[in-house]
Design a protein that fits this description.
Blueprint lengths: L5 H5 L7 H14 L9 H17 L2 H10 L16 H7 L1 H4 L3 H6 L6 H4 L10 E7 L1 H6 L1 E12 L14 E3 L8 E8 L2 E8 L8 E3 L11 E12 L8 E4 L15 E7 L5 E4 L2 E9 H6 L1 E7 L2 E7 L8 E4 L15 E8 L6 H11 L12 H11 L1
Parallel strand pairs: 1-9, 11-15
Antiparallel strand pairs: 2-7, 3-6, 4-5, 8-9, 10-11, 12-13, 14-15
């Protein structure tokens, strides 16, 4: 049968909305449904073509290529599925056929069992762990070995959950469909309630004889080690996902992932502010007054800095590119040194006398010169 224009086939305008296209497809699918047209090969072909038209026109990218190039635009990657098996159509468009009006009209007699079944193996869950890092590890990066407690594949049954590889049999509870269907008749028609079979978890199959080591789970509790390379510049609460290192799935299902969330350990004397590192340096007032050269710690070792004469308390000295690297960048933050003046708490007699003499000198005295100009200024202040 020659292919028809998709819009013409569904009976919609070229500017039709997705809802209009879906509605039109439902009508065509009901019209040409195999249960309404038993043995009619032409109706079966129309049923397939309608599904192909809906597949293209419901996908914005495929629809745009079809509008521009016609059928030629759908060749190669990203083209149509070209449904050969009617059961594929029910599987492919589960949002329209699954538990929908087609169940009410046709009892879902042709619904593919594979569209309802879940795989025998179930996806393993993810594992989240928190990994504390020192400021040095954050700044320079680190290689870590992490011990992870997780479900692992049972080595006795190789994850199948079946004793001695006997295998699986059809679930007697759902007869292999993976679903339990309950039909309630009301004055409005049939209401179909579909639930996953509790006995086989939706797979449609159960283990003939359970593995005694894992009791049919296909997995056991265990521990494994994961190598992790921490990139420089990571921040607290950032995380890395390591695929397939989480819990093993039931009955040979794929593993979950390992999610490593980073934490920052407090540092004894550095503080982090974004990508900058702050260090409080305490110096004697003599060094602040006269100037000095002092060695300070850095993330990668130590460095000498110059204290200029007359340095004031809380003055900042910025050392560029000695901070935390920016994540995935070559740029670094700065090391910010905050100068604090160290005041001695214990003095001997000689030191006290020297300080008293120093306190009377011009640049150390806090008492202003009591001259006429000074008192005139004070007087003017209060007038």
């Amino acid at each position: 049968m020659e292919k028809k224009d998709y819009y013409e086939l569904l009976g919609v305008d070229r500017n039709a909305t997705l809802d209009e296209i879906k509605s039109a497809y439902r009508k065509k699918a009901m019209q040409y449904h195999p249960d309404r047209n038993p043995g009619n090969k032409e109706a079966e072909e129309m049923f397939k073509q309608a599904a192909e038209a809906y597949e293209v026109l419901s996908d914005p990218d495929k629809r745009a290529r079809y509008d521009r190039y016609g059928f030629e635009g759908l060749r190669g990657n990203g083209g149509t599925s070209g449904f050969n098996d009617i059961s594929d159509i029910f599987s492919h468009f589960g949002d329209i056929f699954g538990g929908s009006i087609f169940d009410d009209f046709f009892g879902n007699t042709r619904r593919s069992s594979r569209s309802s079944r879940r795989p025998i193996g179930e996806q393993g869950s993810d594992i989240k762990i928190r990994l504390p890092l020192t400021l040095g590890e954050i700044a320079l990066g680190a290689k870590k070995k992490i011990k992870v407690k997780a479900y692992q594949q049972c080595d006795r049954c190789q994850g199948t959950g079946s004793k001695d590889g006997i295998g699986y049999t059809t679930c007697p509870n759902c007869n292999g469909t993976g679903e339990i269907r309950q039909v309630t008749r009301t004055f409005l028609g049939q209401i179909v309630n579909v639930t996953t079979c509790y006995n086989c978890s939706g797979s449609g199959q159960v283990v003939k004889e359970k593995c005694p080591k894992c009791n049919g789970e296909g997995r056991v509790e265990g521990e494994h080690t994961v190598d992790l390379e921490v990139p420089p510049g990571i921040e607290a609460n950032q995380y890395i996902v390591i695929e397939n290192q989480g819990n093993a799935g039931r009955r040979g299902g794929p593993n979950g992932d390992l999610i490593v969330i980073f934490e920052e350990k407090p540092h004894p004397f550095f503080k982090r502010n974004g990508n900058d590192i702050i260090y409080e340096l305490k110096i004697p007032f003599t060094s602040a007054a006269l100037g000095d050269e002092i060695e300070i710690p850095t993330i990668e070792g130590s460095k000498k800095i110059k204290i200029e004469p007359g340095t004031q308390p809380n003055e900042r000295i910025i050392i560029e590119n000695e901070g935390i690297p920016f994540f995935n960048k070559k740029k670094k933050g700065n090391l910010i040194v905050i100068v604090n003046i160290l005041v001695p708490t214990k003095l001997n007699a000689k030191e006290k006398e020297l300080l008293r003499q120093l306190a009377q000198s011009e640049h150390f005295s806090t008492t202003p010169k009591r001259n006429k100009d000074f008192f005139e200024k004070v007087k003017d202040t209060f007038l």
